Amino acid sequence: MTERRSRKDAARNREAVLAAADDLFTRCGSPEDVTMADVAAAAGVGKGTIFRAFGDRAGLLRALYEVRLEPIREAVEAGPPPLGPTAAPRDRVPALLDAVLCFKLDNRRLALALEEGGSGSPYRAEHYGRWHGLLQAVLEQIPGLPDSDFTAHALLAATRADLVEHLAGEERVPREKMRAQLADFTARLLASGPPRGVAAEE
């Protein structure tokens, strides 16, 4: 009985921390403004509770990121076209990139905090690896495109959180214009053949 209550308390605390962090990162002017102490105070728990549940600030950011990303993940894994697995590759690639861009736009502060969180290279992050692996696999289904590994990296670079923040914040590029620019860039890349002197992969 005591163990069950302890698990329920831990689950309730975890939800409270995620909700508090979600609210704080949504309202903050800069990701660096949000501290673990701020989150603990907003959630009504001690800092030790956060460290036990998430390990460190980066772990908390990753957990919150995953919670927000869940609807998109479900659409990608089992949803209908153009995001779902039955979509034609040439339709799915731009849809995947648009989903990533829209997610970054909707979660600008959180995405920026995660990518700049000092937890190592953003390219080694689990969420980046998943997107890259998925995009590479879909690109490999398109005839004539060389080096799907590099192409996936290059396309995802257009959705980096720091670039999205710069365009949406400092340059004030409207959301729909940014989406259209990414769609146009992706379409031109998919329509191009191998560079001169580079053979397409078999």
From TrEMBL:
The keyword NADP appears for this protein: no
Top-level taxon in the UniProt lineage: Bacteria
Boundaries of every HTH tetR-type domain copy: 11-72
Residue spans binding DNA: 35-54
Keyword line: DNA-binding
InterPro entries: Homeodomain-like_sf, HTH-type_TetR-like_transc_reg, HTH_TetR
Matches recorded under SUPFAM superfamilies: Homeodomain-like
One of the Pfam families matching this protein, by short name: TetR_N
Protein name as catalogued: TetR/AcrR family transcriptional regulator
Record organism: Streptomyces graminearus
Lineage of producing organism: Bacteria, Bacillati, Actinomycetota, Actinomycetes, Kitasatosporales
